[in-house]
Amino acid sequence: MRLNESIIISAPPRRVWDYLADPSNYLHFMSGVTRWEVAGGPRSGLGARYRMLLRVGSAEVGGLIEIIEWKEERDMAWSSVLGVDQRGRWRLRELPDGRTRVEFRYAYGVAGSGIPGWVAERFAAPQLKGHLRRTLQQLKRQVEHEQLRADAAARERERAATSR
Amino acid sequence: MADERTIFERARDNGGGAADGGLGARLGPLGDIGRVSGSLARATADFARAGRRLAGALAETGQDATAGASARIARELRDRLSADLDDRDPDHLREQLPLLWLISSFWFRGEVRNLGNIPEEGPVLMVGNHSGGNLTPDTFVFTLAFSTYFGVERPFNQLAHNLVMASPYARLLRSGGTVAASHENSRQALESGAALLVYPGGDWEVHRPTWERNRVDFAGRKGFIRLALDANVPIVPIVSIGGQETALFLSRGAWLAQLLRLDRYLRLKVLPISVALPWILNIGDFLGHFPLPAKITVEVLEPIDVRRQFGDDPDLDEVYEYVTRVMQETLDTLAAERRLPVIG
Description:
The complex is a heterodimer of chains A (164) and B (344).
Chain A lengths: L1 E8 L3 H9 L4 H4 L3 E6 L10 E8 L2 E13 L3 E6 L4 E10 L5 E10 L4 H50 L1
Antiparallel strand pairs in A: 1-7, 2-3, 3-4, 4-5, 5-6, 6-7
Chain B lengths: L6 H7 L9 H5 L10 H23 L3 H18 L8 H18 L3 E3 L10 E5 L8 H14 L5 E5 L1 H4 L4 H6 L2 E3 L2 H9 L3 E4 L3 H5 L16 H9 L3 E7 L6 E4 L2 H6 L2 H4 L7 E4 L3 E4 L13 E4 L5 H5 L5 H22 L7
Parallel strand pairs in B: 1-10, 2-5, 2-6, 3-4, 3-5
Antiparallel strand pairs in B: 6-10, 7-8, 8-9
Helix pairs in contact in B: 3-4, 5-6
């Protein structure tokens, strides 16, 4: 089953990408995530692996995931290596006014689980959709906060330069 | 050459026959029927042997077709009763996770805390209190949580009575890592690096009256400590609450078993009495029951390194006292959090 949520962030794609590329940020903005650890290999980029867990219902579900697509400032996708089947994708697109549209796609399931799997996917969907929505809201808050700080720092530097 | 003995015979030879009070009984089974079912297990074994004898007799009289059918039945029964570590099937378990998740999340509203206290890798002996009669929701909820947290790839075994392995759910249980309760299986599981879940209280604890639901009662069984020492693995206590609210458990029925001479003739030490769906008055709980949707909360405590904490030659009584005390304290805390029975 595939879920899809999007949001517009008042920051350029570069800033959003830098935030998403750093695995240490994920516990701060990913709703429901209880673990996001580097699991050997590169810390980020294509081939990076993470052990992640996401609380859904009565269980923490997840496993080992690997980054399988890495197009700077545009697309980052991961797929499960161990654990439940899952694929995730960050899709960043710059808007004409310089802001960024961020799309979060998440597909999940357990192959071969039959009717119970089909039912479980649908029962889990509302909770996961909530996680996706809150994740994007928290991402927006974090990135825009950083953007404001960066803008303020730039203004401060400019003021200091003109007053000299 | 394959071992032609029944699983009951092998377990009895290993000293693990639950009704014999062997280690298997002391460790307590998963979803166990424990001593209650010991005699039934032997009866089933006798049936298997009778099937083989019948097959032999019929073959001798030239009725080959009938003999073949009887032999097949005996073989099928024997196969169903057997269980070993190799029966665990991570792929099959993985395919069952959605069903477990549905029941655990929406019926029992399961909540498992502090799974991070379990060592990330290596063998570990997890010791739990046991509730819920012959259907044990705490095991159900914990198995799901363990399998999703550490992944189905991590070896994870649970001990169960032989009769449980003969139940209609045996295939699911075996694929999930449930093995017959015996000293040999316990040792093998830990030596192979698996996480092993045992319930020392077994049938005695699982059939306690509902008004004793917030009490850890291992009935003085200390086999798990010796097992941890022999295998040199840490003990991780697992405390759960809510299972004894899935029915109204009235009595273990030890007096009834005595009155009916079941303890003497069938070696049944308990004959539990409960009010449960769909039977209303449920005596024996042999067929299980439909559990009420009680909220199940499980808390994993910090590992106990017995030798480091109690020395190289620890006093088993002292260790037993310590383990049950920390578990009881946690259970008291969990009980204080609950506002209403069943609802949680």
